[in-house]
Amino acid sequence: MMLRILFHVLILLRIEAALVDRTFLQNAKAKGAVCLDGSPPVYHLDRGSGIGINNWLVHIEGGGWCNNVPSCLVRKNSKQGSSKDMAKQLNFSGILSSESQFNPDFHNWNRIKIRYCDCASFTGDVETATKLYFRGARIFLAVMEELLEKGMKNAENAILSGCSAGGLTSILHCDNYRALIPESAKVKCISDAGYFINAKSIFGASYVEDFYNGVVTTHGATKNLPLSCTSKEKPGLCFFPQNIVQQIQTPLFIINSAYDSWQINNTLVPPLSDPNNT
Length: 278
Ligand SMILES: *[C@@H]1O[C@H](CO)[C@@H](O)[C@H](O)[C@H]1NC(C)=O
Ligand SMILES: *[C@@H]1O[C@H](CO)[C@@H](O)[C@H](O)[C@H]1NC(C)=O
Fold this sequence. Notes:
Blueprint: H1 2-17, E1 19-24, H2 28-31, E2 42-46, E3 55-60, H3 69-76, E4 89-91, E5 110-114, H4 136-149, E6 157-163, H5 165-172, H6 174-180, E7 186-192, H7 207-219, H8 227-230, E8 252-255, H9 261-268
Parallel strand pairs: 3-5, 3-6, 6-7, 7-8
Antiparallel strand pairs: 1-2, 1-4, 2-5
Pfam family, one: PAE
Family: Belongs to the pectinacetylesterase family.
Organism: Olea europaea subsp. europaea
């Protein structure tokens, strides 16, 4: 009987070990580094141990974008635009897992998941008259400053990764991240499903190009996109990795399906190509 209880306690501990508490960014309001609705951004940090103590893996959550005031107003009240209803704990699995059997390379690194709440891949920074805050770039910097203080300033190895809109963030901010980490450290970036292409839809128009123009304009993102691109191209085009990866100095590893279903649904066959949903 005792053994059985002990067994269940151990199972519970094992499951709970995967759950990582949230941290609200400090001084978010003072720094103007806030989510779309003005709430403070959130990240989850699981500390490294042993030989991983000075290694850092920062992972950025995805969740699409908003490209004008009405669509951002809708997102403001969702998990993509506000920290109000975000989970208190997250289950760290895969590349974030603390278990060596599931995550042999990074299980003992400092692992961080940054929640997405700005809706422009952390590039925005503009004051508006609407009740919306477009402050993604400030969030990125403020979270990084807090992580540097928490030990990332002593990093020996550091990776910036992300998925989908977060994967695009890891491309757009790859060199910025490198610049924040000590020069002696080895720094790399990983983009998982974040390579969005500028393809024409089945009707021949580039809907996604218009969409990104809207994202960049609405969020005042131009000044935070790579200058190597914005000095040559229209700013909206600098949201496409195809126009920026050649200039990135930091090693970048791109993982993307050739049949990315988001891009098939939204770039090749956008919803407006079938307004009656037939
Ligand atoms: C956490 O994720 C792992 C792997 O996906 C899963 O086996 C486990 O049941 C999850 N735990 C909780 C509490 O959700
Ligand atoms: C793309 O559309 C298909 C068919 O409607 C759907 O099953 C799939 O989940 C969609 N994929 C994404 C990433 O939205």
